[in-house]
Amino acid sequence: MERIGLIGAGRAGTAVGAALAAAGHPLVGVTARSGASRERAARLLPHVPVLPADEVTTRADVVLVAVPDDLIHDVAHTLPLTSAQYVVHLSGAHGLGPLAGLAAMPVALHPSMTFPGAAVRLDGIMFTATAPDEARPMVERLVKSLGAQLQWVADEQRARYHAGLTHGANHLTTLLTQAVGVLREAGVADPAATLRPLLAATLDNTLRSGHHALTGPIARGDVDTVAAHLSVLRDRTASTYAELARATVELAAADGRLDPDTVARFDEVLERDRTGEAPR
Hints:
It contains eleven helices and seven strands. The radius of gyration is 24 Å and the shape is elongated. Helix 4 links the parallel strand 3 (62-65) and strand 4. The longest helix has 28 residues, at 158-185. It has two domains: 4-153, Rossmann fold (3-Layer(aba) Sandwich); 160-275, N-(1-d-carboxylethyl)-l-norvaline Dehydrogenase, domain 2 (Orthogonal Bundle), CATH 1.10.1040. Strands 2-1-3-4-5-6-7 form a seven-stranded mixed sheet, sandwiched between helices. The model has no long low-confidence stretch (mean pLDDT 95). It is α/β, with parallel strands linked by helices. Helix 10 packs antiparallel against helix 11 (260-275). It has helices at 11-22, 35-44, 53-59, 72-76, 136-145, 158-185, 191-209, 217-220, 223-232, 235-254, 260-275, and strands spanning 4-7, 27-30, 62-65, 86-89, 105-111, 126-130, 149-152.
Protein backbone atom coordinates (compact mmCIF):
# COMPACT_ATOMS: atom_id res chain seq x y z
CA MET A 1 0.00 0.00 0.00
CA GLU A 2 1.06 3.58 -0.62
CA ARG A 3 2.72 5.49 2.19
CA ILE A 4 0.58 8.49 3.13
CA GLY A 5 1.88 11.82 4.37
CA LEU A 6 -0.64 14.25 5.86
CA ILE A 7 -0.09 17.99 5.56
CA GLY A 8 -2.47 19.60 8.03
CA ALA A 9 -4.36 18.17 10.99
CA GLY A 10 -7.77 19.72 10.52
CA ARG A 11 -11.03 17.85 10.97
CA ALA A 12 -11.27 16.43 7.45
CA GLY A 13 -7.59 15.54 7.13
CA THR A 14 -7.33 13.72 10.44
CA ALA A 15 -10.58 11.82 9.85
CA VAL A 16 -9.49 10.69 6.39
CA GLY A 17 -6.00 9.94 7.70
CA ALA A 18 -7.41 7.83 10.53
CA ALA A 19 -9.60 5.91 8.08
CA LEU A 20 -6.64 5.27 5.78
CA ALA A 21 -4.54 4.07 8.71
CA ALA A 22 -7.36 1.76 9.82
CA ALA A 23 -7.46 0.38 6.27
CA GLY A 24 -3.78 -0.55 6.52
CA HIS A 25 -2.08 2.38 4.80
CA PRO A 26 1.10 3.44 6.59
CA LEU A 27 0.87 7.08 7.69
CA VAL A 28 4.44 8.31 7.73
CA GLY A 29 3.81 11.68 9.36
CA VAL A 30 1.47 14.60 9.93
CA THR A 31 2.03 18.32 10.32
CA ALA A 32 0.26 20.15 13.13
CA ARG A 33 0.97 23.80 13.85
CA SER A 34 -1.69 24.93 16.30
CA GLY A 35 -2.47 23.53 19.71
CA ALA A 36 -5.88 22.36 18.49
CA SER A 37 -4.27 20.58 15.54
CA ARG A 38 -1.71 18.86 17.75
CA GLU A 39 -4.45 17.74 20.14
CA ARG A 40 -6.54 16.41 17.25
CA ALA A 41 -3.58 14.58 15.75
CA ALA A 42 -2.74 13.02 19.12
CA ARG A 43 -6.35 11.88 19.56
CA LEU A 44 -7.09 10.54 16.07
CA LEU A 45 -3.59 9.63 14.88
CA PRO A 46 -1.85 8.58 18.11
CA HIS A 47 0.84 6.49 16.40
CA VAL A 48 1.66 8.98 13.63
CA PRO A 49 4.67 11.24 14.24
CA VAL A 50 4.19 15.01 14.04
CA LEU A 51 6.91 16.24 11.70
CA PRO A 52 7.88 19.29 9.62
CA ALA A 53 6.19 19.47 6.23
CA ASP A 54 9.31 18.74 4.20
CA GLU A 55 10.03 15.59 6.21
CA VAL A 56 6.44 14.36 5.87
CA THR A 57 6.67 14.94 2.13
CA THR A 58 9.94 13.12 1.55
CA ARG A 59 8.70 10.04 3.43
CA ALA A 60 5.42 9.68 1.47
CA ASP A 61 4.22 8.22 -1.82
CA VAL A 62 0.93 10.14 -1.53
CA VAL A 63 1.01 13.62 0.01
CA LEU A 64 -2.41 14.61 1.29
CA VAL A 65 -2.68 18.41 1.50
CA ALA A 66 -5.53 18.80 3.99
CA VAL A 67 -5.52 22.55 4.57
CA PRO A 68 -8.24 25.22 4.06
CA ASP A 69 -9.19 25.74 0.41
CA ASP A 70 -7.56 29.15 0.10
CA LEU A 71 -4.21 27.78 1.32
CA ILE A 72 -3.92 24.70 -0.91
CA HIS A 73 -1.94 26.39 -3.66
CA ASP A 74 0.52 28.18 -1.41
CA VAL A 75 1.12 25.21 0.91
CA ALA A 76 1.45 22.65 -1.88
CA HIS A 77 3.97 24.80 -3.74
CA THR A 78 6.28 24.89 -0.71
CA LEU A 79 6.58 21.09 -0.55
CA PRO A 80 9.62 19.22 -1.97
CA LEU A 81 7.52 17.01 -4.23
CA THR A 82 8.91 14.73 -6.94
CA SER A 83 7.52 13.16 -10.11
CA ALA A 84 7.35 9.81 -8.31
CA GLN A 85 4.69 11.10 -5.92
CA TYR A 86 1.01 11.99 -5.91
CA VAL A 87 -0.25 15.21 -4.34
CA VAL A 88 -3.89 15.12 -3.27
CA HIS A 89 -6.19 17.78 -1.86
CA LEU A 90 -9.61 17.25 -0.26
CA SER A 91 -11.43 20.37 -1.46
CA GLY A 92 -14.79 19.96 -3.14
CA ALA A 93 -14.78 23.37 -4.78
CA HIS A 94 -11.32 23.19 -6.36
CA GLY A 95 -10.09 20.97 -9.13
CA LEU A 96 -6.50 20.57 -10.23
CA GLY A 97 -5.77 24.29 -10.57
CA PRO A 98 -4.17 24.80 -7.12
CA LEU A 99 -1.79 21.90 -7.86
CA ALA A 100 -0.79 23.05 -11.35
CA GLY A 101 2.94 23.20 -12.01
CA LEU A 102 3.96 20.77 -9.28
CA ALA A 103 6.25 17.84 -10.03
CA ALA A 104 3.91 15.31 -8.40
CA MET A 105 0.80 13.86 -10.05
CA PRO A 106 -2.18 16.05 -9.00
CA VAL A 107 -5.45 14.68 -7.61
CA ALA A 108 -8.57 16.41 -6.27
CA LEU A 109 -10.43 13.95 -4.01
CA HIS A 110 -13.46 15.10 -2.06
CA PRO A 111 -15.48 12.98 0.40
CA SER A 112 -19.19 13.87 0.52
CA MET A 113 -19.29 13.88 4.29
CA THR A 114 -19.25 16.26 7.23
CA PHE A 115 -16.41 15.99 9.73
CA PRO A 116 -17.18 16.97 13.34
CA GLY A 117 -13.63 16.54 14.64
CA ALA A 118 -13.93 12.89 15.64
CA ALA A 119 -13.35 9.59 13.85
CA VAL A 120 -15.81 9.09 10.98
CA ARG A 121 -16.73 5.89 9.16
CA LEU A 122 -16.11 6.35 5.45
CA ASP A 123 -17.32 2.99 4.17
CA GLY A 124 -20.14 3.63 1.73
CA ILE A 125 -19.32 7.35 1.46
CA MET A 126 -19.03 8.80 -2.04
CA PHE A 127 -15.66 10.29 -2.99
CA THR A 128 -15.63 12.58 -6.02
CA ALA A 129 -12.32 12.72 -7.87
CA THR A 130 -10.63 14.69 -10.61
CA ALA A 131 -7.26 13.44 -11.81
CA PRO A 132 -5.17 12.66 -14.89
CA ASP A 133 -5.72 9.20 -16.32
CA GLU A 134 -2.36 8.03 -14.97
CA ALA A 135 -3.48 8.71 -11.40
CA ARG A 136 -6.81 6.91 -11.60
CA PRO A 137 -5.59 3.43 -10.58
CA MET A 138 -4.05 4.83 -7.40
CA VAL A 139 -7.20 6.80 -6.57
CA GLU A 140 -9.35 3.72 -7.12
CA ARG A 141 -7.12 1.63 -4.83
CA LEU A 142 -7.19 4.28 -2.13
CA VAL A 143 -10.96 4.70 -2.14
CA LYS A 144 -11.65 0.97 -2.48
CA SER A 145 -9.47 0.28 0.56
CA LEU A 146 -11.81 2.48 2.61
CA GLY A 147 -14.88 0.57 1.45
CA ALA A 148 -16.10 3.83 -0.08
CA GLN A 149 -17.60 4.69 -3.47
CA LEU A 150 -15.90 6.68 -6.21
CA GLN A 151 -17.15 8.92 -9.01
CA TRP A 152 -15.31 11.21 -11.42
CA VAL A 153 -16.09 14.84 -12.21
CA ALA A 154 -14.44 16.95 -14.90
CA ASP A 155 -12.11 19.68 -13.70
CA GLU A 156 -14.30 22.46 -15.10
CA GLN A 157 -17.35 21.10 -13.23
CA ARG A 158 -15.87 21.12 -9.71
CA ALA A 159 -17.46 24.44 -8.71
CA ARG A 160 -20.88 23.29 -9.95
CA TYR A 161 -20.48 19.95 -8.14
CA HIS A 162 -19.61 21.68 -4.89
CA ALA A 163 -22.44 24.20 -5.27
CA GLY A 164 -24.88 21.29 -5.42
CA LEU A 165 -23.50 19.81 -2.21
CA THR A 166 -23.48 23.13 -0.40
CA HIS A 167 -27.00 24.02 -1.50
CA GLY A 168 -28.30 20.63 -0.40
CA ALA A 169 -26.39 20.23 2.87
CA ASN A 170 -25.26 23.57 4.32
CA HIS A 171 -28.42 25.39 3.32
CA LEU A 172 -30.45 22.55 4.82
CA THR A 173 -28.96 23.47 8.19
CA THR A 174 -30.03 27.09 7.67
CA LEU A 175 -33.53 26.02 6.65
CA LEU A 176 -33.98 23.67 9.61
CA THR A 177 -32.65 26.24 12.07
CA GLN A 178 -35.31 28.65 10.82
CA ALA A 179 -38.01 25.98 11.00
CA VAL A 180 -37.08 25.08 14.57
CA GLY A 181 -37.29 28.76 15.50
CA VAL A 182 -40.78 29.09 14.01
CA LEU A 183 -41.98 25.99 15.89
CA ARG A 184 -40.58 27.36 19.15
CA GLU A 185 -42.41 30.64 18.56
CA ALA A 186 -45.59 28.61 18.08
CA GLY A 187 -45.11 27.07 21.53
CA VAL A 188 -43.83 23.65 20.41
CA ALA A 189 -41.77 22.25 23.28
CA ASP A 190 -39.65 19.82 21.23
CA PRO A 191 -39.23 21.02 17.63
CA ALA A 192 -36.60 18.39 16.84
CA ALA A 193 -38.86 15.49 17.83
CA THR A 194 -41.68 17.08 15.85
CA LEU A 195 -39.61 17.48 12.70
CA ARG A 196 -37.45 14.34 12.81
CA PRO A 197 -39.87 11.70 11.42
CA LEU A 198 -41.22 14.09 8.78
CA LEU A 199 -37.72 15.10 7.69
CA ALA A 200 -36.45 11.52 7.61
CA ALA A 201 -39.36 10.41 5.43
CA THR A 202 -39.06 13.45 3.16
CA LEU A 203 -35.31 13.01 2.70
CA ASP A 204 -35.64 9.31 1.91
CA ASN A 205 -38.55 9.86 -0.49
CA THR A 206 -36.84 12.75 -2.27
CA LEU A 207 -33.55 10.93 -2.73
CA ARG A 208 -35.47 7.99 -4.20
CA SER A 209 -38.11 9.83 -6.23
CA GLY A 210 -36.86 13.38 -6.76
CA HIS A 211 -39.53 16.04 -7.28
CA HIS A 212 -42.24 13.35 -7.34
CA ALA A 213 -41.89 13.21 -3.54
CA LEU A 214 -43.19 16.78 -3.19
CA THR A 215 -46.14 17.11 -0.80
CA GLY A 216 -47.65 19.99 1.16
CA PRO A 217 -49.78 23.04 0.42
CA ILE A 218 -48.13 24.07 -2.84
CA ALA A 219 -48.36 20.59 -4.32
CA ARG A 220 -52.05 20.58 -3.31
CA GLY A 221 -52.66 24.08 -4.72
CA ASP A 222 -53.57 25.52 -1.30
CA VAL A 223 -52.90 29.19 -2.07
CA ASP A 224 -54.68 30.49 1.03
CA THR A 225 -52.53 28.29 3.29
CA VAL A 226 -49.32 29.74 1.83
CA ALA A 227 -50.74 33.26 2.24
CA ALA A 228 -51.51 32.49 5.91
CA HIS A 229 -47.95 31.26 6.44
CA LEU A 230 -46.49 34.43 4.97
CA SER A 231 -48.70 36.55 7.22
CA VAL A 232 -47.15 35.10 10.39
CA LEU A 233 -43.51 34.66 9.36
CA ARG A 234 -41.02 37.45 9.94
CA ASP A 235 -37.77 38.86 8.60
CA ARG A 236 -35.28 36.47 7.01
CA THR A 237 -37.44 33.40 7.61
CA ALA A 238 -40.30 35.01 5.67
CA SER A 239 -38.05 35.81 2.71
CA THR A 240 -36.50 32.32 2.75
CA TYR A 241 -39.95 30.75 2.81
CA ALA A 242 -41.14 32.94 -0.07
CA GLU A 243 -38.11 32.24 -2.29
CA LEU A 244 -38.37 28.49 -1.71
CA ALA A 245 -42.12 28.67 -2.30
CA ARG A 246 -41.48 30.28 -5.71
CA ALA A 247 -39.10 27.46 -6.62
CA THR A 248 -41.60 24.88 -5.35
CA VAL A 249 -44.41 26.39 -7.44
CA GLU A 250 -42.17 26.06 -10.49
CA LEU A 251 -41.49 22.40 -9.64
CA ALA A 252 -45.15 21.58 -9.13
CA ALA A 253 -46.16 23.45 -12.29
CA ALA A 254 -43.54 21.69 -14.40
CA ASP A 255 -44.78 18.37 -13.02
CA GLY A 256 -48.32 19.19 -14.14
CA ARG A 257 -49.76 19.29 -10.63
CA LEU A 258 -50.72 22.97 -10.79
CA ASP A 259 -52.90 24.50 -13.48
CA PRO A 260 -52.05 27.96 -14.87
CA ASP A 261 -54.73 29.72 -12.82
CA THR A 262 -53.40 28.29 -9.55
CA VAL A 263 -49.84 29.22 -10.53
CA ALA A 264 -51.00 32.77 -11.18
CA ARG A 265 -52.68 32.93 -7.75
CA PHE A 266 -49.50 31.69 -6.08
CA ASP A 267 -47.48 34.26 -8.03
CA GLU A 268 -49.80 37.01 -6.84
CA VAL A 269 -49.48 36.00 -3.18
CA LEU A 270 -45.70 35.66 -3.41
CA GLU A 271 -45.32 38.96 -5.25
CA ARG A 272 -47.28 40.73 -2.52
CA ASP A 273 -44.77 39.31 -0.05
CA ARG A 274 -41.87 40.60 -2.15
CA THR A 275 -43.31 44.12 -2.40
CA GLY A 276 -44.60 44.27 1.16
CA GLU A 277 -48.20 44.83 0.05
CA ALA A 278 -50.77 43.82 2.66
CA PRO A 279 -52.67 40.60 1.90
CA ARG A 280 -56.12 41.14 0.40
